[in-house]
């Protein structure tokens, strides 16, 4: 909080190590295949929800953090 305040940067949501690991597993599951592609926005929402990552920061259609 102090660092964010000192640098005038809003504090963003935090993830725990388990969430980070599971996010990487889902996000990069097909990266070594020819069909590799980035998840579509609707797929992103499902991935984030499955990991209890909710709110505007985790909404790929939100412009709150841009």
Q: Give me the strand/helix succession.
A: HHH
Radius of gyration: 14 Å
Task: Give the percentage of residues in beta strands.
Answer: under 5%
Write down the overall geometry: elongated
Largest sheet: none
Mean pLDDT: 89
How many domains is the backbone divided into? 1
Number of strands: 0
Terminal Cα span: 20 Å
- Unreliable residue stretches: none
Helix content: 25-40%
Q: What class would the helix/strand composition place it in?
A: mainly alpha
Number of helices: 3
Task: Report on this structure.
- The chain has one domain (15-66).
- It is 39% helix and 0% strand.
- The chain is built from three helices and no strands.
- The chain is elongated and about 45 Å long.
- The mean pLDDT is 89.
Secondary structure layout:
Layout: H1 2-6, H2 17-27, H3 41-50
Give keywords.
66 residues; mainly alpha
Characterize this entry briefly.
The protein has 66 residues and is mostly helical. Helix content is 39%, strand content 0%.
């Amino acid at each position: 909080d102090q660092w964010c305040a000192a640098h005038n940067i809003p504090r963003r949501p935090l993830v725990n190590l388990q969430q980070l690991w599971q996010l990487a597993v889902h996000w990069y599951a097909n990266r070594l295949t020819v069909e590799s592609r980035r998840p579509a926005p609707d797929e992103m929402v499902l991935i984030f929800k499955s990991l209890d990552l909710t709110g505007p920061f985790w909404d790929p259609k939100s412009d709150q953090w841009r």
